[in-house]
Amino acid sequence: MQLRLASRVLSLSSLLCACVGDDDGGGASATVTVGITTVMPGSGNSTVQDLLPTEGDGGSDGSGSTDDGVGGTTEAVKLDLGSSADFGSTFDAGCEYIDVLFVVDISASMNEEKANLDANFPGFVSVLDAYIADPNTEAVGYRLGVTNSSIVANKDGKSSMGLDGALFDGNNLFDDDCELGGKLWIDGPDPAVASTFSCLAPDPKSSCNLCTDLGRERPLDAIEMFLAKMAPGGVNEGFYRGDASLLVIVLLTDEDDDVGNTTTTPAATKAALDEFTGGEQRYVVVTIAGPQAAPCDSAFGSADAAPTLHAFTSMVPNGLMGDICQGDLAQALDQALTLIQLSCDTLPPPVG
């Protein structure tokens, strides 16, 4: 395991060095040392460099923050490879499975974003397939599930076409079962992964015909309900494969968590994930949403500021914030894949 991890980190270093050019402004060093830094950009200017550690302790001042190039600072979180990251001793780390949940905003304003996700998804799958096929990894498979970020019952009495954290089965008023064959998720590698996902992801709505798909996005509640429904007898039972798995949650929304209706907090949702997976290093959160402090406009249309989702993602050691206003999800998905692969390679055993 020690040699496998060293090989993967060196391979990642080579990949990133090939992608990062000289930076006249004194950008991050193109070498991978201990850990990987992921940043929470709000400007849409993030690059592969954002996944590289900067000098010192994660920032130019040693504080874990980096200069954003426009006179401010960007808070960063660090993926810690653990006490054996210097490869001085053998340790048991790495995942056999990658279990990925997509939590998708179903409001009408998301049509362009979902179309772009669909366009970029075959490339996402091909990278996962190559990772599984790599003899230097121990991963043997991945699985994909979809739910939405809406909850049916809201404090104002309005009902939504939410799934309350349940995995989408492909059946609603508009679609068939997406050829899932009675399952609630897609197992890969498989030639049909991309096409099945393209059926599931654009319209994961419940069949409630008196409900709406407008607003009231509550992704944090949806995450907690998703976890609860993986208990024995729950609708999501079996999706997450436990100790051998890295759990990945991808949030895609142009709104923030609805503070007027939510029943949780970023800290509570993180605590639920920590407990469920057996440690904060055993899952990844990728949030693709609006900026932290102000709304934005892009080729996708407008997106609200998302301070709550930024706060949640910044709490997660293996967290990545993508800017939905870049107008193309390719870069965010590429960076997510880099983080997912490294997190799988370094997955520690559950705590306790």
TrEMBL record:
Keywords: Signal. It comes from the Bacteria. Residues 44-72 are annotated as: Disordered. The keyword Signal applies. Residues 1-18 form the signal peptide. This is VWFA domain-containing protein. It comes from Nannocystis exedens.
